[in-house]
Specification:
Elements: H1 11-18, H2 21-35, E1 43-46, E2 62-66, H3 69-78, E3 83-86, E4 99-105, H4 113-126, E5 127-140, H5 145-154, E6 161-162, H6 163-171, E7 175-185, E8 189-198
Parallel strand pairs: 1-2, 1-4, 2-3, 4-5, 5-6
Antiparallel strand pairs: 5-8, 7-8
């Protein structure tokens, strides 16, 4: 189980204080929806937490997964029309080539590189041939030392990386990456927003 994603606060507190609607819309949804259209497209929200991002997607095409069973339970109560599943034993129970998009928002900086490597093949297995991984993570930046120091001090994630390191997580597993945007969140968080696609095999 990806224990490192879990932060020791109740699902209710996490949802209302870490993922309030206005904050989530401004710093996540508006960015994602300015680059991608999801109508009729299947989406896996990997590390979905309490389901704050599910409102971007039609319930018929969305599945949220998280290792924290408490958060999954709470998400299902909040959004009864969407589907949520507890992530167990590092397994993603999806058929081959069944997913158009994998959404990974503020998850990777809680997971070691070794653990992420175990998911990369699974991501490739479940993505459709033209499928895309959408990633948004706090990012260390040499030109913004104040942001970097603040994130290291304040954030619960033990694996905040710089841009090159995030790219390598995917490139080393045969993904092509495209940086979509770099932006500041609440002045002190430097965010990296990028997409990754499995390289086409000859």
């Amino acid at each position: 189980m990806v224990k490192s994603i879990t932060i020791s606060v109740s699902p209710q507190l996490y949802h209302w204080f870490v993922r309030p609607k206005w904050f989530t819309k401004k710093y996540i949804h508006d960015h994602v929806q300015s680059y991608f259209r999801f109508e009729g497209r299947s989406v896996l929200d990997f590390g979905s937490g309490t389901g704050a991002n599910c409102s971007m997607f039609h319930p018929s095409y969305y599945v949220g997964m998280d290792p924290d069973a408490g958060r999954i339970k709470y998400a299902q109560r909040l959004y009864p029309h969407h589907q949520f599943k507890t992530l167990e034993n590092n397994n993603i129970p999806f058929p081959h080539e069944s997913v158009d998009y994998i959404l990974i928002i503020a998850v990777l900086h809680h997971i070691s590189s070794e653990e992420i490597s175990r998911y990369m093949k699974e991501f490739q297995r479940i993505l459709k041939p033209n499928g895309t991984i959408i990633v948004m993570e706090p990012c260390l930046c040499k030109s913004k030392p104040l942001c970097s120091r603040f994130m290291k001090w304040y954030d619960k994630g033990e694996y905040i990386r710089d841009e090159v390191q995030y790219m390598r997580l995917f490139q080393d597993h045969d993904y092509d990456c495209t940086v979509l945007k770099r932006f500041r969140k609440c002045f002190l968080y430097h965010e990296l927003f990028f997409s990754a696609k499995p390289k086409l095999q000859n």
